[in-house]
Backbone:
């Protein structure tokens, strides 16, 4: 009984939403030629039938091992359809509220008012809102579907970070910053290999990775180990852990199994030639001058794990003129770095993915994630300190990107 309860509730809610939106579709269909009206009404229910089948498969069929992309795409189709109809329903609700206010006003008006649904102006406005609601929902759904094609369209972002504290020998240093590979979501090794080659083509002096190598477990790297092992730079490849790397979102047979998975993931970093920084720092030297590179475990301010110990990583760096911090979650910047470590000059993060959905135009940026994270993509500055938030190399959940493309960041220190 319990197994059917939640799927049944969700299916009932969606069908009620469908019936509500159907009223608008029926009004729009009434403007079609007579021979098309019947087929148009039946066609409306085809996506609902497909949704029902997909939802039952998602809810009750066991996952197919080795085919994570089917469930990801199916879930995205389901979620996209629901959000599209919710958006359409908002316009219809606005029209219904207009009808209620018009009716209420007519009760107090001494003049005879014709029913809203019967007069020319009332009908035209209702039809307009019905068209607008359905079109908006359709555009949203279509955009999400087209976003499937963008998940491997790597975009190179070039950023210059200037600081008077930077030693002269490090001016012009080229850093490639990547984050959030999420290898458990990747399904196209050839496309991923092109992304790795794009990094190498930039000839970076150093490569820095800010966490979430996997979704849940170290085994997800089995098909991508060789590809990411190609990442090399003269000053090395350094990394830190993200919230997904700890296996916190997976049911393990025992605490020991979870701990062993984390140790295996650390070994993956090492075997690829990546220096994983675990609440520690290293000295980077160039032409006899030095700066400090700090890396901590995940530290999140919004319900994610707080494993990081910045005080341990910072200890011993007091004499360095310039410090770079690798910390996966950008909320760490305001929560701890700005207030307690004013001499950390540059922090690199990821985590948000830009929600894989948004708009980025010259002079204007928007994503729903900005209502959760104040720093969600790109470069931020406060005084001498800077934060860069990478939009992510991979993807999670929704197997696509709309407006926020996967990112390879090239940072030049100056």
Residues:
């Amino acid at each position: 009984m319990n197994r059917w309860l939640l799927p049944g509730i969700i299916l009932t809610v969606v069908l009620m939403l469908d019936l509500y939106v159907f009223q608008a579709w029926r009004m729009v269909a009434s403007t079609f030629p007579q021979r098309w009206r019947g087929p148009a009404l039946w066609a409306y229910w085809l996506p609902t039938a497909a949704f029902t089948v997909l939802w039952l498969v998602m809810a009750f069929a066991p996952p197919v091992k080795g085919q994570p992309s089917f469930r990801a795409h199916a879930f995205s189709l389901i979620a996209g359809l629901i959000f599209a109809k919710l958006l359409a329903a908002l316009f219809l609700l606005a029209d219904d509220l207009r009808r209620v206010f018009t009716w209420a006003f007519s009760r107090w008006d001494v003049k005879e008012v014709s029913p809203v649904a019967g007069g020319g102006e009332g009908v035209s406005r209702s039809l307009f809102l019905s068209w607008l609601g359905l079109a908006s929902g359709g555009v949203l759904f279509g955009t999400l579907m087209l976003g499937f094609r963008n998940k491997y369209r790597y975009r190179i972002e070039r950023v210059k970070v200037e600081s008077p504290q930077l030693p002269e020998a490090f001016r012009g240093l080229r850093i490639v910053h990547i984050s959030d590979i999420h290898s458990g979501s990747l399904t196209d090794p050839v496309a991923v290999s092109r992304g790795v080659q794009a990094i190498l083509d930039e000839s970076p002096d150093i490569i820095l990775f800010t966490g979430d190598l996997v979704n849940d477990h170290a085994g997800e790297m089995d098909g991508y180990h060789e590809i990411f092992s190609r990442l090399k730079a003269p000053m090395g490849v350094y990394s830190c852990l993200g919230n997904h790397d700890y296996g916190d979102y997976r049911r393990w047979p025992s605490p020991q199994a979870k701990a062993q998975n984390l140790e295996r993931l650390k070994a993956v970093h090492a075997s690829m030639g990546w220096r994983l920084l675990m609440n520690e720092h290293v000295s980077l030297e160039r032409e006899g001058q030095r700066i400090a590179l700090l890396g901590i475990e995940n530290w999140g301010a919004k319900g994610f794990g707080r494993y990081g110990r910045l005080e341990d990583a910072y200890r011993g760096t007091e004499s360095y003129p310039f410090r770079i911090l690798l910390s996966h979650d950008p909320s760490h910047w305001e929560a701890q770095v700005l207030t307690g470590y004013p001499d950390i000059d540059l922090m690199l993060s990821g985590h948000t993915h830009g929600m894989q959905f948004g708009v980025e135009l010259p002079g204007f940026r928007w994503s729903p994630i900005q209502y959760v994270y104040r720093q969600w993509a790109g470069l931020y500055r406060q005084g001498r300190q800077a934060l860069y938030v990478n939009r992510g190399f991979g993807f999670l959940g929704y197997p696509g990107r709309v407006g926020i493309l996967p990112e390879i960041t090239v940072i030049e220190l100056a």
